[in-house]
């Protein structure tokens, strides 16, 4: 196609260099924004919609979007089982918003029959802040990423209602609610660094991908 | 203590970013909303009559009954949009008070103001507006729209107008990209759009907000074609619940939108869907019945 209409086009920043190979789950949502950030940071980015495309990556990002739609499409097109297997085998995965929901072991306020991939030992509540009128942006202090606060955009976002023994909270709102978690090679945020120009979460994630790639090669 | 801000441009435009690659479906009952969510819709548009019925029944088409909107919001967990008449800022205030997730200032309803559109900056709830060309899209964005949908010709099942509008917007963007900076002043005058927005489009090669396609999409192949033409996602109005098997058709359109560039998937999901909506050829519509011409 020759059209450049689609926002967040990949053309702008894809590097030909041999950076870490990172896939972005591209069933629905703002996957191009993630791809753009990752490419800017030197990763070799590919979009993942089919099981075989998962074999060619050392890390995966699950973008923002509608978790119930991603779950449905992942199951319909045979991606759910390979994704679960890859997570169990230690593939680094970073999920934002809907991606965090997909990575949670337990999801509250899901639609009937909705499943998650699991991996993060957390309970996540969907749409925890209410309707779009309650969506907001704010600054978060996240010591793991340095002294400068992280500007975070929450769009009908989830929150982590409880953090199991295996997972570690990375960020909380002023009221104490957890909005970012880490567990081994898995990382999840309720908010969207991919649409604010905030690159530190992606850098943090890419460090995991590089480490994993160097161990397995 | 950090400050939280709702209703910022980033937050408003951000929800549209999250809807990308998805299908937004018109629904007129909570039962239809449930079918849409189960089929994989990213959002629903709550309204009393789908455009095909507005067309056949005639009369003034207005904002839906708040009871209906409440019932649909209560039924689903995906975002709920609702329509206000062009220029009817009080209908928009009501929809904001009802806590809908997006307000569609829509030509499908009867216009309330033949001169002014709603000042959308004045609202916390984001707006989506229709456009048939780039100038119209940029005027709506200048008024505060956080998402644009090409208009097509709603309620017809004829995709030709949707094709015309997305191609028009696309080609007008391509023309801007090839212009020198001094030519852009004239371009802004001719597009009847603010220079700053014209410059931004010329530099980035895209609209500053998400662009969906609407109006006449009735089949999985229609949806995939709009995606191949550069849409960020699709609205399906009458096309689903005016067809023979809404559940199957809705799920098929969702899959075709994700795999829009894979004809084997589009072929597979197009099988056995039963009858598509009957449809009206846009060429057979008398000019006063063409909804896309509403909006200025």
From TrEMBL, chain A:
Pfam families linked to this entry: SNO
Active site: 97 (nucleophile), 192 (charge relay system), 194 (charge relay system)
Entry keyword set: Glutamine amidotransferase, Hydrolase, Lyase, Pyridoxal phosphate
Role noted for this protein: Catalyzes the hydrolysis of glutamine to glutamate and ammonia as part of the biosynthesis of pyridoxal 5'-phosphate. The resulting ammonia molecule is channeled to the active site of PdxS.
Catalytic activity annotation: aldehydo-D-ribose 5-phosphate + D-glyceraldehyde 3-phosphate + L-glutamine = pyridoxal 5'-phosphate + L-glutamate + phosphate + 3 H2O + H(+); L-glutamine + H2O = L-glutamate + NH4(+)
GO biological process, one term: pyridoxal phosphate biosynthetic process
Subunit annotation: In the presence of PdxS, forms a dodecamer of heterodimers. Only shows activity in the heterodimer.
PROSITE patterns assigned: GATASE_COBBQ (PS51274), GATASE_TYPE_1 (PS51273), PDXT_SNO_1 (PS01236), PDXT_SNO_2 (PS51130)
UniProt pathway: Cofactor biosynthesis; pyridoxal 5'-phosphate biosynthesis
Gene Ontology CC annotations of this record: cytosol; glutaminase complex
Name of the molecule in the record: Pyridoxal 5'-phosphate synthase subunit PdxT
MF annotations from Gene Ontology: glutaminase activity; pyridoxal 5'-phosphate synthase (glutamine hydrolysing) activity
Family the UniProt entry places it in: Belongs to the glutaminase PdxT/SNO family.
UniProt EC number: 4.3.3.6, 3.5.1.2
InterPro entries: Class_I_gatase-like, PdxT/SNO, PdxT/SNO_CS
Binding site for L-glutamine: 65-67, 126, 155-156
Gene, per the UniProt record: pdxT
UniProtKB/TrEMBL annotation, chain B:
A Pfam family hit: SOR_SNZ
SUPFAM superfamilies: Ribulose-phoshate binding barrel
InterPro entries listed in its UniProt record: Aldolase_TIM, PdxS/SNZ, PdxS/SNZ_N, RibuloseP-bd_barrel
E.C. designation(s): 4.3.3.6
Domain PdxS/SNZ N-terminal, chain residue ranges per copy: 9-214
GO molecular function: pyridoxal 5'-phosphate synthase (glutamine hydrolysing) activity
Gene3D superfamilies according to UniProt: Aldolase class I
Keywords: Lyase, Pyridoxal phosphate, Schiff base
PROSITE patterns: PDXS_SNZ_1 (PS01235), PDXS_SNZ_2 (PS51129)
Catalytic activity from the UniProt record: aldehydo-D-ribose 5-phosphate + D-glyceraldehyde 3-phosphate + L-glutamine = pyridoxal 5'-phosphate + L-glutamate + phosphate + 3 H2O + H(+)
Catalytic residues (UniProt): 83
Domain of life: Bacteria
UniProt KW Lyase keyword: yes
Residues that, per the record, bind D-glyceraldehyde 3-phosphate: 167
Function: Catalyzes the formation of pyridoxal 5'-phosphate from ribose 5-phosphate (RBP), glyceraldehyde 3-phosphate (G3P) and ammonia. The ammonia is provided by the PdxT subunit. Can also use ribulose 5-phosphate and dihydroxyacetone phosphate as substrates, resulting from enzyme-catalyzed isomerization of RBP and G3P, respectively.
Assembly notes: Homohexamer and homododecamer. In the presence of PdxT, forms a dodecamer of heterodimers.
Family membership noted in the UniProt record: Belongs to the PdxS/SNZ family.
Protein's UniProt name: Pyridoxal 5'-phosphate synthase subunit PdxS
Lineage of source species: Bacteria, Bacillati, Actinomycetota, Actinomycetes, Micrococcales
Annotated gene: pdxS
């Amino acid at each position: 196609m020759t059209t450049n209409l689609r926002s967040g086009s990949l053309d702008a920043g894809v590097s030909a260099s041999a950076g870490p190979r990172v896939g972005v789950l591209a069933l629905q949502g703002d996957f191009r924004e993630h791809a753009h950030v990752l490419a800017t940071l030197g990763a070799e980015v590919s979009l993942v919609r089919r099981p075989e495309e998962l074999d060619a990556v050392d890390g995966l990002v699950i973008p923002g979007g509608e978790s119930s739609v991603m779950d449905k499409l992942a199951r319909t097109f045979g991606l759910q089982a390979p994704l679960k297997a890859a997570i169990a085998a230690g593939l680094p995965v970073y999920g934002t918003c809907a991606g965090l929901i997909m990575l949670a072991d337990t999801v509250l306020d899901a639609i009937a029959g909705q499943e998650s991939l699991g991996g993060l030992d957390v309970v996540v509540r969907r749409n925890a802040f209410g309707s779009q009128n309650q969506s907001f942006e704010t600054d978060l202090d996240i010591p793991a990423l340095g002294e400068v606060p992280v500007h975070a955009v929450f769009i009908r976002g989830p929150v982590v209602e409880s953090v199991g023994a295996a997972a570690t909270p990375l960020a909380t709102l002023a009221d104490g609610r957890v909005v970012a978690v880490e567990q081994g090679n898995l990382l999840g945020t309720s908010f969207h660094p991919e649409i604010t120009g905030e690159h530190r979460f992606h850098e943090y994630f890419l460090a995991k991908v590089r480490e994993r790639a160097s161990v397995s090669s | 203590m950090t400050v939280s801000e709702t209703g910022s441009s980033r937050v408003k435009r951000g929800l549209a970013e999250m809807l990308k690659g998805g299908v937004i479906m018109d629904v007129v009952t909570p039962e239809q909303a449930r079918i849409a969510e189960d089929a994989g819709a990213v959002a629903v548009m709550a309204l009393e009559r789908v455009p095909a019925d507005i067309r056949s029944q005639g009369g003034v088409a207005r904002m839906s009954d708040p009871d209906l909107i409440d019932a649909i919001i209560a039924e689903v967990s995906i975002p709920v949009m609702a329509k206000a008449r062009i220029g009817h800022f009080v209908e928009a205030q009501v929809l904001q008070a009802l806590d809908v997730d997006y307000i569609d200032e829509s030509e499908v309803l009867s216009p309330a103001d033949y001169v002014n559109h709603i000042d959308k900056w004045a609202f916390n709830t984001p707006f989506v507006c229709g456009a048939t060309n780039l100038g119209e899209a940029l005027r709506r964005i200048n008024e505060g729209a956080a998402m644009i949908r090409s208009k097509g010709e709603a309620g017809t099942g004829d995709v030709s107008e949707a094709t015309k509008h997305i191609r028009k917007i696309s080609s007008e963007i391509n023309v801007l990209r090839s212009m020198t900076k001094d030519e852009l002043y004239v371009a802004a005058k001719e597009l009847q759009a603010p220079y700053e927005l014209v410059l931004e489009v010329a530099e980035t090669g895209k609209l500053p907000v998400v662009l969906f396609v609407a109006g006449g999409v009735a089949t999985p192949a229609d949806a995939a074609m709009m995606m191949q033409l550069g849409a960020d996602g699709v609205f399906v109005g009458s096309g689903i619940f005016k067809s023979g098997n809404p559940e199957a058709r809705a799920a098929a359109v969702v899959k075709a939108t994700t795999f829009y560039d894979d004809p084997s998937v589009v072929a597979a999901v197009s099988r056995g869907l039963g009858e598509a909506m009957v449809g009206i050829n846009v060429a057979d519509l008398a000019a006063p019945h063409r909804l896309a011409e509403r909006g200025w």
